[in-house]
Design goal:
The complex is a heterodimer. In chain A, 12% of the residues lie in helices and 39% in strands. In chain A, strands 3, 4, 5, 6, 10, 11, 12 and 15 form an 8-stranded antiparallel beta sheet that branches. Chain B folds into 2 domains: 155 residues, Cytochrome Bc1 Complex, Chain D, domain 2 (Orthogonal Bundle); 149 residues, Cytochrome Bc1 Complex, Chain D, domain 2, CATH 1.10.760. Chain B is 33% helix and 1% strand. The chains are: A mainly beta, B mainly alpha.
């Protein structure tokens, strides 16, 4: 056996073992077949992509309006099965920031490995639940720019929807349709008796979402912006004015409408 | 035996090539400079990969920032440096009391006035949205030499309405000044003075100019209390029904006291300035829009707005209170525009001003590390 071949075989084995032992093993096979989920965020008015800064839209209150930008958080995205079980997608990131001015925020692939299966529903929190909505948890822009003042309840805006409407004087008046923690005033504006957590759960209509092994399934999530103003409450900018952070009644109307704002397409 | 040696060599090569090269050696490595992140401040810093912060780079940058020979000239009447305009006691702005620039309107060595007034030079390591009133220097700029503070340094040194320097003369001059080549060697590993390294070192020094110890910072940290009037001003600052300053100028959750973004804030009805934000984006909604400046140390700065139209903070508060102009380009965040402004009462104006004054950081404006060195390298 002491022939020349030993000089080749032994070092070759050594080579192979060293190569595979010297670096981190990154090829651990998952026990169960899993896939990924991507959400793409889209923003529509009247069933079509928004033309930003265009006074081309009319809400059910008869307000002509334009949209300049939309920034918001959704969190605790949850998949539901027919048997009632749920999976919260929260590996590394349980709060997603969406900004119509920043393309990178308009599509997320969850880190979660999702078991291959058929899921019947998707839900999420619009905004951030109280336990997680802590001031200074986002120190970096753009999320940090969403902070909600301490005096008004702290944490972060759930949403900034900024635009303009033609008011009763036919002036293009700015509106800041901002949602976050509301306040009940003992005497406005100096004395707050109570804060109101305005986050709410959005449950999308039943779906047949198939997560397949080693595949990424994409849901196109659509915010139908017109529905913030019309279903079930007809929201009149002339009545509520340009700002609502300190108007809980206006925010209440908005969150009731918010349940109907989102739709989806499975791609 | 040759085969054995061959395989051993091959093995070693493969192992090192698979795991990444960690064995590269550098002949000289400067000392990393660590930026301490103040409470509540962003952790993401705008430090380009090709100009890491080093103790030696900052030291050199400080000398150059203050050295009037940065113009490439040595005659006492022609000396001009960054610090000629950027005065520490004015939060590295000129200030309305500048001895050479009446009213705070700076001009270059040739007497040419700058197009806009100055912006304060503080906390810029956290600006990734664009430098300058229009944000013309930004990291993603397709024009590679218009991206960051390094480029700002070069533009300022070369501009006719600023230092009006000549890179060849500047390099030659600093190469010849005792002490500087050694400082370049320490900072960049070569005693050869290059203009690129001048840009880099001054930019490094500028990135150290951090202001985060005002009365409001101490309030945030629980170390100091605000007065009744300051608190009332803070309420106005951070409420929509009040003055609603915070959406653009920050607050507790954004202690930079700016978003570094660009807004048409209702100053004008006609927009003739060729260097507004529109000049960068070509978005019609950006006509007449300019950077929201940080309000930190605003008390010692001035004049205010891009064209320096307001001399005092009282003027600015009056403008926001009663003098806004409605145009199609007004930023949607200016929702008080319909009433012509935020309509503050005289006492509310005082409260708001008192709160804004809590953003003054005297430690920053006297800190030795940021000040003019006692001696330049050739005087040591």
């Amino acid at each position: 056996m002491h022939n020349k071949n030993n000089y080749i075989i032994i070092p070759t084995l050594l080579l192979v073992s060293l190569i595979f032992s010297s670096c981190e093993n990154s090829s651990i096979e998952p026990e169960n077949p899993t896939g990924k989920l991507r959400i793409e965020f889209n923003h529509y008015i009247n069933g079509e992509n928004i033309i930003f800064d265009s006074m081309a839209y009319v809400n059910d209150a008869g307000n002509n309006y334009l949209v300049n930008e939309i920034q918001y958080f959704i969190s605790d995205v949850t998949l539901h099965k027919n048997d009632g079980s749920t999976i919260i997608l929260n590996t590394w990131q349980d709060i997603l920031y969406v900004d119509t001015d920043i393309d990178e925020t308009n599509s997320y692939i969850f880190k979660d490995e999702i078991s291959e299966d058929e899921y019947s529903k998707l839900s999420f929190t619009f905004g951030i639940v109280a336990e997680k909505n802590n001031s200074l948890m986002f120190v970096n822009p753009p999320e940090s720019f969403m902070f909600w003042p301490e005096l008004l309840g702290g944490g972060y805006h759930y949403m900034k929807l900024n635009g303009k409407w033609n008011n009763e004087l036919n002036q293009p008046a700015p509106f800041n349709f901002h949602l976050g923690i509301g306040q009940i005033y003992y005497s406005f504006p100096d004395s707050i008796s109570e804060y109101v957590q305005n986050h709410f759960i959005v449950e999308l209509p039943e779906m047949a979402l198939n997560i397949k092994d080693n595949e990424t399934t994409t849901i196109k999530l659509i915010m139908n912006v017109d529905r913030w103003f019309n279903t079930p409450n007809i929201y009149d900018h002339n009545f509520w004015g340009g700002d609502i952070m300190q108007k809980q009644d206006a925010m209440q109307q908005a969150i009731e409408n918010g349940h109907n704002v989102f739709s989806y397409i499975i791609k | 035996m040759r085969l054995l040696i061959f395989f051993c060599a091959l093995t070693a090569t493969l192992i090192f090539s698979r795991c990444g090269d960690k064995s590269t050696s550098h002949p000289y490595k400067a000392t990393p400079y660590e930026i301490n992140i103040p409470f509540g401040f962003p952790t993401n810093l705008n430090i380009p990969e090709d100009n890491p912060m080093t103790v030696e780079g900052v030291e050199l940058g400080r000398y150059l920032f203050y050295d009037g020979r940065l113009s490439g000239r040595t005659h006492p009447d022609s000396l001009i440096s960054c610090a000629t305009c950027h005065r520490q006691e004015r939060s590295f702005e000129a200030g309305i009391d500048h001895p050479d620039f009446p009213g705070g309107f700076p001009h270059g060595i040739n007497g040419l006035k700058t197009h806009h007034v100055m912006l304060p030079m503080i906390n810029l390591v956290w600006n990734s949205s664009g430098y300058g009133w229009s944000g013309f220097l930004y990291p993603e700029n397709p024009i590679e030499n218009l991206r960051n503070l390094e480029d700002m340094v070069r533009l300022a040194v070369l501009a006719k309405d600023e230092i009006d320097g000549d890179t060849t003369r500047i390099k030659k001059l600093f190469q010849s000044i005792n002490g500087y080549p050694n400082l370049f060697e320490k900072a960049f590993g070569s005693s050869n003075v290059t203009f690129k390294n001048i840009e880099k070192s001054i930019a490094q020094f500028i990135r150290t100019l951090i202001s985060a110890n005002s009365k409001f910072d101490k309030y945030m940290r629980g170390e100091e209390q605000l007065t009744q009037s300051e608190l009332a001003g803070y309420v106005l600052f951070t409420t929509e029904e009040g003055a609603d300053c915070f959406h653009c100028h920050g607050g507790w959750g954004n202690p930079l006291f700016t978003t570094h973004l660009f807004y048409n804030n209702g100053k004008d009805t006609a927009f003739l300035d060729p260097l507004d934000r529109y000049s960068i984006t070509q978005d019609p909604m950006d006509r007449g829009a300019y950077k929201a400046t940080t309000l930190r140390n605003i008390e010692v700065q001035g004049p205010f707005m891009h064209d320096g139209r307001f001399t005092t903070l009282e003027d600015v508060i009056n403008f926001y209170s009663h003098e806004l102009n409605m145009t199609p380009y007004i930023d949607p965040l200016m929702h008080h525009i319909i009433a012509g402004g935020i309509q503050l009462t005289p006492s509310e104006k005082i409260d708001l001003l008192n709160f804004i004054k809590t953003l003054r950081d005297d430690e920053f404006m006297t800190k030795v590390e940021f000040s003019k060195p006692d001696k330049f390298p050739d005087e040591l």
